[in-house]
Every structure is written in structure tokens, then in C-alpha cells.
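Ticket #4471: structure export looks truncated?
Reporter: QA, pipeline team
Priority: medium

Steps to reproduce: submit the single chain below to the structure queue and open the exported record.
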Amino acid sequence: MMRALYTAATGMIAQQYNIDTISNNLANVNTTGFRKNTAHFQDLIYQNLRAPGTPVGPSVVPVGQDVGLGVKVGASEKTFTQGVLQQTSNPLNIAIEGDGFFQVTQPDGTAAYTRDGSFKRDANGSIVTADGYFLSPQITIPQNATQVQIGQDGIVTALIPGQQQPQQLGQIQLVRFTNAAGLAPTGRNLFAQTGASGAPTLSQPGLNGTGSLQGGYLEQSNVTVVEEMVNLITAQRAYEANSKAIVAADEMLQTAVQTKR
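Actual output as written to the record:
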């Protein structure tokens, strides 16, 4: 059987994965804090027909002869470039301008990390995510508090009736990782720590390489629609080219089978 059939098939499989990745990026173009994925590919092993440097009489072969056996998906990497900040009327909408993640506590007690700063207040006044996960460290806003503000350094203040000056309620912390691309996306705009990401480093916003906070803003997805559409067309054309390679190999096999003396 011709190698081209299997080689082109690996190309079609790889481009299908590429299109799946691009489709997910486009689907999340309006997802707060979303980070786009980029598919990376690697060539497969080669069948070495003649190695370079093979002795031929008094000389050696200057170049080798080998045949590649296709392509595979090498990695799917998150791109952590800054998204556009959009102003909102909600003081509990918080955008990170720079590096870092919010840390939240999941129902099982484990920590998760997110760039989605669309926080709410629960029945007890605690700051939580849309799914009810507590912001960590936990901050509670009194029920009668007004004019809640969040500074660039993460300090949360509010005006309490009967007091002249705003009262400090706590300070939001940010988390950094040595290799943010090594975090595992778990859905719900959350990431989980892995062995590749390194240990989380908790810091005050604006210090130790972390970004500052912008209260009343939300960070949009870093997906660029035009770029993704171009990538989608490129992947589609590559898929079609590989399918035509299969057709060409099939026609060559058909010709060989039908050859008569």
C-alpha cells in the first residue's frame, strides 16, 4: 500500500484538530477572560532509505534519502496575551491589567484560578464567582454597605452608614505561575495547577510581576476574529490538499492494478 495514503490521512486528522481548536476560539470570542488556544504540530518518524555519509567508493553520499510518514499534534497551547478592557457599571467587575489570576475556592475546597473578574455578592455578602465559588482570600461586604470600590492595589473599601470615611474590607490578591501555559483549563473560565505550571505565588496586585486591578471593568477574550477566520481558511485548504493527495494516490493504485501486459 502506498505510504501517501497514510501520510495524507495524518494530515487530515491534524487539520481536523486544528479546525476544532479554531472553532472553540471563535465560540468563546465573547467569553470574559478567555484565552485562545493554538495548535502546534510535529512531523512523524522518517523511513531512512539511505543515510547521509554512506560510503560510496572513495567518497560518501553528501545527502541522505528518507521519506516522512506524516504529522501529529504536538501541543495545544494557551496564549496569555492581554484582552481588551470593557467598562461596566458594576463595581464588582474587576479586570486584571497585566499578569496574574484570581484565586477562587471550589466546593471541594481545592483552589482554581481565573481571569474572569465578573464577581457577585452572595446572600451573606461574600464576593463569589457566577457559580458561587468564593474569592480567595474571602472578602465579605456588609449588607448595608454602599459605594463599594476596588483600588488598583486590590484594596476593597465601602461606605458604611454612620461612618465618615470608607471602611477597608480586605485586599484582593493575585496569583502568578512560572509557566502559565502549563495550567489545565477545566471549564467555567477556570484553570487548575499542574506539575508543568509550577507552584502558585500569591502577591499583592502591582507587586512581584503581577498586574494591577481595574474596578468597574471586565477583560474580554483575547481572540481576534479576523485572525481566527484566516487560520480557519488556511486549515480548511490544508485539509482539502491532503484529501486530494489521497485521491491522487488512489488513482495511482488503480492505474497500477489495471495495468496489463
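Status: closed, not a bug. The export was complete when the record was re-opened. Leaving a note from the reviewer for reference: The chain has a mean pLDDT of 93.
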